[in-house]
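Exercise: predict the fold of this chain.
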Amino acid sequence: MDTADPQTHATHDFDVRTLISWNAPGRPFRKKGKQFFLSVTLILLFFEVILFLFSQYELMMVLLALTFLSVMLSIVPPHDFHYKITTEGIKVEDYFYIWSELYDFYFKRIDGADILIVRTQTFFPGELKISLGHLTRDHVRKVLVNYLPYREFVKPTFMEKSADWLTQNFPLEKTQ
């Protein structure tokens, strides 16, 4: 009768291994020029006057707060996050998403930076937007394709199409 310990002979396929680990900014960031802030201020004043004429004071405060938020996000650069792709899922800082919570992935270029977008099964958060930093798309795709379906093309939503149209037809600053 063999009484050998089964753990000494078995391979541990259930061990969590880190496949890729990197640090990158938490969101795409591009320094804005004076023209951007002037455009935002003029648009804010235009809408504030219209809302004042219709006595919508609460809406004026909401618009002011949202403008303040967008200006602060334009000024303050993001800090670096630590990202990790393991055999069990994707870790962003201290939160871990297991593969069964994730749906598929694709890549997008936002403000000159390559972004990995992983769609989730649940409505919230819906998408994880992960900066690749120094990693290449091909390297990340080769790792992730073993766990999630890869989409070369994802049909833009109505909001994305609207935002692109506004950006192209009414830019807040001149591109160089």
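Check your answer against the key: The chain has five helices and seven strands.
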